[in-house]
Structure formats: structure tokens, C-alpha cells
């Protein structure tokens, strides 16, 4: 595991406030420089030579951190989401824009019309792939049955993975066929497409 994967995720609000802080520090350094140019004294010399560079260095460090964070966020393969029991991952008829891989915990696949639990999926299983492959809306609702941690793979990355890893494509298509037919290893189960 690299250091970047342990960085906390910053929301848009946090990035905005960090940017404002960096700009404020830079502006403060410029005001100190302007004060030095207009009235050169021992005090302004001290401020200009010590505090202004410190403010600029801190602003640069903030910008570097934001840039690194944004680069990492834009180039990582998976996002990780956590849900508590009862929370919805997605609803039936939502657009399908990602697939979910269960890292830990358990989810229930539910038919929206009558609340019937169609399947329970646990660690190592995945769902949401059928909507990506068929370009149709989700055909079931998925909710957390226990605290669950999901690795979320966007549609473009999912389709690239299928293209680059033929064995993965075969396994996923096999699962899709089983779910579409309502069969798992030859026996009929109450399990439907969870994508």
C-alpha cells in the first residue's frame, strides 16, 4: 500500500477553503512587500525578509498538496464507500454508472415493488455490473445488510478492465448469465440481477 492511498479524501468544500487560505497567505505576503517598498524601516525589513517568505512557502505547500490530492483522485482505479445497515447503495431504475465490489460486510438485493430480498451478497462478490454492460437502469435496489465497505469501479474503468483481462470478462459474463437465468451452479435460487 502506498502513501497516497492512505491520504484522507478532501471534499470540494475543503479544497475550496484550502485554496482560499493559500491565496490569503500569498496576498498577505504581497501586502508585506508593498509595505516594505512604500516605507522601508527596520520593522518592514524584518517582515519582508522573514514572514513574507514563510507565508509564500506555506501557500506553495498548500497548493502542492491540493494538486497532488486532485491528481491522485483523478487517477485512482477504485473509490471506497462505506454504508451502515439499512442504507441504500442505489435504487432500482437509477442510472448505472459504476460496479461495486464488496470488500467486507453484506448487502441485500431487493425488488423495489414488493420489498422481496432477491439475494444476499458478501465479501468477494460484486454487483451493479449488468447495468454497465446493458446500458440500462439498475433493475434492483441494493442496501447494506451489515456494515459494508465497497470498492467502486466507474463504468469506463470497468469496461477497460473487461477488455484488458479476458479471464475477468469471462467470469463476469458467466455471473451475468447465471443471474439473468436465476440459476447458480445448476440450482434455482431466489437471486436476480443485482446490476
Concise overview:
The protein has 195 residues and is α+β, with helices and mostly antiparallel strands. It has helices spanning 12-38, 42-75, 129-134, 155-164, 166-181; strands at 78-83, 88-90, 98-104, 106-110, 117-122, 126-127, 141-144, 148-154, 183-184, 187-188.
Walk me through the structure.
- By secondary structure, the chain is an alpha+beta fold.
- The chain has five helices and ten strands.
- The radius of gyration is 25 Å and the shape is elongated.
Distance between the first and last residues' Cα: 30 Å
CATH topology (level 3) name of the largest domain: Jelly Rolls
Shape: elongated
Q: Low-confidence spans: pLDDT under 50, at least 5 residues?
A: 1-7, 183-195
For the CA atoms, what is the radius of gyration?
25 Å
Counting DSSP E segments of at least 2 residues, the number of strands comes to: 10
Percent helix range: 40-55%
Percentage of residues in strands: 15-25%
Q: Give me the secondary-structure category.
A: alpha+beta
Kindly report the average pLDDT value.
80
Secondary-structure element order, as H and E? HHEEEEEEHEEHHEE
* Count of folded domains: 2
Instruction: Describe the sheet with the most strands.
Output: 4 strands, antiparallel
CATH architecture classification of the largest domain: Sandwich
List keywords for this structure.
four-stranded antiparallel beta sheet; 195 residues; alpha+beta; disordered N terminus; Jelly Rolls
List the helices and strands and how they pair.
Elements: H1 12-38, H2 42-75, E1 78-83, E2 88-90, E3 98-104, E4 106-110, E5 117-122, E6 126-127, H3 129-134, E7 141-144, E8 148-154, H4 155-164, H5 166-181, E9 183-184, E10 187-188
Helix pairs in contact: 1-2, 4-5
